[in-house]
Specification:
Order of helices and strands: HEHHEEEHHHHHHH
Shape: elongated
Structural class: mainly alpha
InterPro entries: P-loop_NTPase
Largest sheet: 2 strands, parallel
Helix content: 40-55%
Number of strands: 4
Strand content: 5-15%
Radius of gyration: 23 Å
Mean pLDDT: 89
Number of helices: 10
Strand order of the largest sheet: 1-4
Distance between the termini: 72 Å
Length: 207
């Protein structure tokens, strides 16, 4: 008995064939042997090899790959050099309008909450520049999560502590860096930010 195989084109193969946008987010989460699939599409060959033959790239096909860079993004890899040679690379600012981003992404409109998160970001940015500590806490997603939390549960002593610890400080795994972040926040953002038990032990020489 003979078997018959039927292949169905992926969304990528279809966009290559008939034209359209192919967008791959977090492209640098893929290994080089995976991104090499795109090589013949993006170079002078302009074709995609498949199990049933090559597909010629349509002139209306557009490929976009977006990536995040920096040590705060776990699991990222360096892009294959051959792949980068086939692309134009655009660098976008980290956050052009931080406050506007929180309003748009989280729907947060409370002025006090926005000021609080904006001051926190600036304090940590300053720490990264001056002390080379806290890089992992420069997390866009963390601030968006913090904004969502403040929007949903209000702005009070407890929620401010929660967003700082859960969504910003604890993004940094190194204990001493966490201590430096907590101290910087207390100096430049919120003088009443309470010490954790670990921080009290650290300051008093117990750790």
């Amino acid at each position: 008995m003979s078997l018959t195989y039927h292949y169905r084109k992926t969304a990528f193969a279809t966009s290559v064939e008939v034209g359209g946008l192919s967008h791959y987010a977090e492209l640098n989460m893929l290994s080089g042997d995976v991104t090499s699939i795109f090589h013949s599409v993006l170079d002078d060959n302009k074709q995609l090899s498949t199990q049933v033959g090559s597909i010629i790239r349509h002139k209306g096909h557009l490929f976009i790959g977006s990536i995040n860079v920096g040590e705060q993004y776990g699991g990222v890899k360096k892009l294959n050099g051959a792949f980068k040679d086939r692309c134009a690379i655009l660098k976008l600012p980290y956050v052009a309008d931080f406050r506007g981003m929180l309003i748009n992404k989280a729907g947060l409109t409370d002025t006090h909450a926005l000021d609080f998160l904006e001051k926190t970001k600036k304090a940590i940015d300053d720490l990264v520049v001056t002390e080379q500590q806290g890089e992992e806490s420069k997390t866009v997603r963390g601030y968006i999560d913090a904004a969502n939390h403040l929007k949903n549960y209000g702005v009070n002593f407890d929620t401010k502590v929660e967003v700082l610890e859960d969504f910003v400080i604890n993004k940094t795994e190194d204990f001493e860096e966490q201590m430096a972040i907590r101290d910087m926040i207390r100096q430049k953002v919120w003088s009443d930010f309470p010490m954790s038990i670990e921080e009290e032990n650290y300051v008093n020489g117990g750790m």
